[in-house]
């Protein structure tokens, strides 16, 4: 008998077969040959799964990056257009003034204003109407109220600064005067 065969595991008292277990292959066929095909198939499946996951992760990253770039581009365009809207307001105010005799200058300003309006429309920016509409905090900023019996309360009476939309989105709220209930006078005049 060999000394190694007589050695026992000190923990459970059984013969120590650790060297034998380490020398055996993970998968053995009945005739003693090593069968690696199951191991290889498992490894290939793992690597294929990792590859497909990384591919999907990269595709999601690419889509997210593209969406973020488009969002940034849209924000820059919107920001630029919002900063140009006061120029349109100035053209409108100037043309609302009565003519003082210089028709050529006025005609030139009208032409520039029309080109600018065309540019804004090409960017899908449009002024929206407010007068006579119910007050909507998503579209209007109320700067003051005016009591009037002619309109129901919370109706837009006048526009101080027009509001604009870009597509369906409000890019600048209209600054408006809103109606309120008329104050009732008592018999003593107060």
Work out the helix count: 4
CATH architecture of the domain at 126-182: Roll
Order of helices and strands: HHHHEEEEEE
Q: Determine the CATH topology of the domain at 126-182.
A: Nucleotide Exchange Factor Grpe, Chain A, domain 2
Oligomer: single chain
Helix content: 40-55%
What would you call the shape? elongated
Average pLDDT figure: 83
Structural overview:
With about 190 residues, the protein is an alpha+beta fold. The protein has a domain at about 125-180: Head domain of nucleotide exchange factor GrpE (Nucleotide Exchange Factor Grpe, Chain A, domain 2, Roll). The chain contains four helices and six strands. It has a three-stranded antiparallel beta sheet with strand order 1-4-5. A three-stranded mixed beta sheet has the order 2-6-3, with no helix packed on it. Strand 4 and strand 5 (about 170) form a beta hairpin. Helix 3 (about 35-95) packs antiparallel against helix 4 (about 105-120). The longest helix has about 60 residues, at about 35-95. It is elongated and about 105 Å long.
């Amino acid at each position: 008998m060999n000394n190694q065969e007589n050695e026992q595991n000190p923990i459970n008292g059984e013969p120590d077969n650790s060297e034998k277990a380490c020398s055996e292959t993970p998968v053995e066929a009945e005739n003693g040959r090593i069968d690696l095909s199951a191991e290889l198939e498992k490894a290939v499946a793992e690597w294929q799964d990792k590859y497909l996951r990384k591919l999907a992760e990269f595709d999601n990253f690419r889509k997210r990056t593209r969406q973020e770039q488009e969002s940034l581009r849209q924000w820059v365009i919107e920001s630029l257009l919002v900063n140009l809207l006061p120029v349109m307001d100035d053209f409108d105010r100037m043309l609302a003034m009565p003519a003082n005799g210089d028709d050529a200058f006025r005609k030139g300003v009208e032409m520039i204003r029309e080109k600018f309006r065309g540019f804004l429309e090409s960017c899908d920016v449009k002024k929206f109407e407010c007068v006579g509409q119910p007050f909507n905090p998503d579209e209007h900023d109320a700067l003051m109220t005016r009591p009037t019996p002619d309109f129901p309360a919370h109706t837009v009476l006048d526009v101080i600064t027009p509001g604009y939309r870009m597509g369906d989105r409000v890019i600048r709220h209209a600054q408006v005067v809103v109606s309120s209930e008329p104050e009732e006078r008592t018999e003593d005049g107060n």
